[in-house]
Design a protein that fits this description.
The protein has 327 residues and is an alpha/beta fold. The chain has 10 helices and 15 strands.
Amino acid sequence: MLVIQYTGRLIYFVGRVSHAQSHMSIVVVGSINTDLIIQVPRFAGRDETVLGEGGYTVSQGGKGANQAVAAIAGGLPVHMVGKVGNDAFGDDALAGLRAAGVLCDYVQRSDTHSTGLATIFLDPEARNSITVAPGANAQITLKDIEDAGELISSADVVMMQLEIPVDACRRAAELARAGGALVMLDPAPAHLQTLDFLHLVDYLTPNELEAEALTGIALIDEQYARQNAQALLEMGPGNIAITLGSRGSYMANSSGHFKIEARPVDAVDTTGAGDAFCGFLATALAKGLGFRQAAEIASAAASLSVTRAGARTNHIDWEKVLGFMQA
């Protein structure tokens, strides 16, 4: 049963998804990685070695997989399109996604490339520095996308990131747009090759560094955020959501601009905040919420995500985020 609750500012969907909504789906076309996480007193400079604090943690990640796990918290079917190696890391990655409820029929195995690997360094202020070896993610081909074409074109929301080949993202966007799906692109890592298909994107979700890389405008304060968002809109996307870390997020579309302040929390690890934001934004949009309402929920999810270590948001669900917003 689905209950609609109105608090005066937002309309929330609370409870399980009804049978009438069960046809809704989200498709994530993106990366699947193994994360190697090391706590450090500070980030290393050029030609410098810094000793980590204690041991290290191996966990599952990849922007695509992280966003898929975040999106599944809303109760809608989430499909993953991607590629892992034919190795133990690949086995673990698939097992983790399936355990979370993500459907993996279109995740391929590579016999020639290993599962993607990310090394994540965390400093005492919960900031991160990440280096990614794409591995099998870089081997996603246009044929892989075409093979999943019917799935992509029949989705409500299709999410993509740039840890896979740009050509694959472009083709997925074309198929999604042809089928009437909302197209969401997280331009991470940002590069200018994305500019030629931003007109196919309904929701562009860069962080402040990625937004600056695309426009050349530094997000020093809200005035510059407005200029940056407007410049991104002029590149073709329908809606812009720039995540600003502890400063919240800045939204823009043809109807206007607005900023959402971050809710104060005790941050432990900020690695997965952007992925939580994207996953919950996609779910809220698929449920039919408007941009401002969806962005409020996504922002709250991002705040909650940093209270535990690791890039995955298995500890967050839809009801927990809504409860956090009302508390």
